[in-house]
Every structure is written in C-alpha cells, then in structure tokens.
C-alpha cells in the first residue's frame, strides 16, 4: 500500500470498510506533469487513494482524496485513477463510494486535469442507474467537484468543517459567509437539498454502511434481501396516531423498525426513505403534516399539500428506486397544492416530474391512503389511475375531488347554512368516503390502520414477479 494509506484519507477508508478488507489499486501512481516545477513536488498516489473492500460482506469500490498532497487537488492522474475505479465497479456490478476532501482542479496541470475531470463526469453518467454511487464530503468540495457530487445518488456531509459549493459564499452578490454560509452542511441539506445525510465523520461512516446494506449492488443482481425475524402479521397498535408524522409510521411497520430516511432535513412535508418488509428493501414516499422529536414533542406542522420541493424530492427518489428494481410504497394524505406566488413559478413542472416518475416506474407499487386524498394532488401520489398495483385505504380516509363542504358551496352558491350542511353530508357519503372509492374500484381493500404492515407485505409478495412493458422509446422528456 502507498504511504498515503496512513494519512487521514487512508484512515477514513479503514473506518468505513470491514476491518483489513481494503485492497489499494494504483498506490504507486504519481503526477507526470512537469510544468511549473511540478517535478520537484512529491505527489504520492497523486493525492487520492483508490481500491476496493467490503461492507458487511458487500463488495464496494472506494476513493478517498488526500488533502495532504497538494490540497487533494485533482490532477490528470488523480482523475484517471477515479475513472479507473468506476470502470472496475461497472464490470463487477458494485457501488462506488467517494470520500471527498479536495481543493479543486490542479492549476499546474490546466487542460490535462480539466479533460481528465470531464472523464469522471462521463463515467458517473454511464454508471447512473447501473450501480449505486455515494459521495461523502469531509473537507472542501467546490466548483466542478460539486457537480460530481450531484451526479451521484446519495451525498453525505460532515456537519462542522465540510464545505460544499459551486461558488463560495463570499462570491455571491450581497452575501458573505457570516451572513449566510451557503457552503455549510445546514444550508446544503435544509435549503438546497443536495445533501441527504449529515453528521460527524463517525456518524457518516455508520450511515453509509447502513445504506449500502439496504441497497442492491447493481440494477440486475439484487442482494438487498435478508432473512426476516420480525412477525409478518405483526399488529401495529395506535398506528393511526402516527398518521401525521409518517416517518414514525414507516418505522413502525418496517421489519425491526428499520427506516433509513433520505433528505430528512429537506422538504420535511414529504418523507422519503428505505424500509424492510419481510427482509426486502422497499422505497417509501409519504406525505407528512407533523414532525415529532425523539422525546415525543411536536416540532413542526405542515399543511397537507404538495410543494415544489417535496414533489421534486419524491420524484428523484422514485426514479432511483425504479432504476434499481426497488418496490415503492406510498402513504397518501394530501388535499391539494401549495398556493402562493413563489410556488406558482415552479409547482406545475415539479408535480409533472412526480407524476412522470410514478407513471413511468415499472417496479411493484403499493399505495395506502391514510388520511385525505383530494383532487389532482391525490392522483399524482401513486393513485391507481397512475399505475399503482394495489391501493389500500384506512376506513376513515377521505377520497374525492375536494372537501365536501367546499364542494357544496360551489354547487349551491346561494344555499343557506342548513342546506349546505345537508348537501355536504350527501356529497361526503356519495363521493368522498373511502367506501365510495372502493365501490368504484379505485381502492382495492379497506383496512384497519393497525393491520397496515401485514397487508403491504402480502401485496409486495404477490407482486414479486411483476413484469410490465412500456412503449419502445429512447427515453422520456419530463
């Protein structure tokens, strides 16, 4: 192994992988550029350690940038080593994990470095949807390296020292770092939504290991199944009480309460993440109206509406699940779309992305209506019309065009209060109840909230061999 194996970059790899499992590739590579007296500088491993190892027995390829070598800057050979790791990972069908600590492109190598960096982008684009790609930012990730991070499926970020930016905070008009640190983990996870997980270095290693064990190694050979020791028919008492905070609901119905939430700090009104059902990884998308902390205190409350950020968050997640043959479960509780001037600028295109993602996905899709399901917002949340294979509804769910009283006001604008109440009750009975939807075939089965786990497990078992063709085309344009 190269001398850099004892550096911080090497120690990060050792902390991530199973003990003594890492095998270095290209440890003797150094920079070959001689411009600007580069021959006088030592560049062991050209500032990046590359190789392979295992996480709980799962093969992964990894690169870790060494900030002690020219700041971890990306030179020609540095980039070619990363591209080489991608080539091997694609051949073997295994994830790539990048541990980033990089000062940017190496100025001394100019266009050689720039061209090689472009080759990394190409490898990432070709690997997208074929193997999982994970980035963890521990130091600086700026400029072009940020684009590389965004090309991967999941991004982790150390929450105290790491920096992630295209343009540094001080380079933004009317901004400075002490006013708004746009490079910080808090901004990138909560406002930009480019970061999925944050925490200390130790936290991040544990989070990556947990995520890798939830995901298939590639889009063909699925190793994301394990033996289930939890009761498949386990009743989840008081599950209805968790309908507001669906992250808690998902944890309750999952095998051994395993739930790995993705982008937990971004667009909190939409929950996305992975659960286990009968040992199988399932992607979950759920509307959320409340957030509770570990002590059971309510920390936030949201309207039951689709937002631009929430729709895009969910759409990207569904596309990932479909690419890797991960079944999708949705928990629906939505009354409409967020209505304000800011939303009107982008909500139509964002919801169109979500609509396309659900409609285009060919994996098993199950929907459970746990609250209100009104109008077009319900339709785009994996409804039966959009292609859900099985649709369940809790007995007290409401499914229809809109709230019954609002519908009555529109249909009978001149009616008095008594008539409005009468017509609202009539509308609710005929058009808004879960039973009314079930009678029309839009809901397959009405279920008790506490029985949700066993019903969705049964549905996904039935759908395990699902095959569905789509019209022949190069790709969609949404």
TrEMBL record:
Location of the CoA carboxyltransferase N-terminal domain: 1-159
Name of the molecule in the record: Acetyl-CoA carboxylase carboxyltransferase component
InterPro entries linked: AccD/PCCB, AcCoA_carboxyl_beta, ClpP/crotonase-like_dom_sf, COA_CT_C, COA_CT_N
Organism domain of life: Bacteria
Gene Ontology MF terms: propionyl-CoA carboxylase activity
Record domain CoA carboxyltransferase C-terminal: where: 231-462
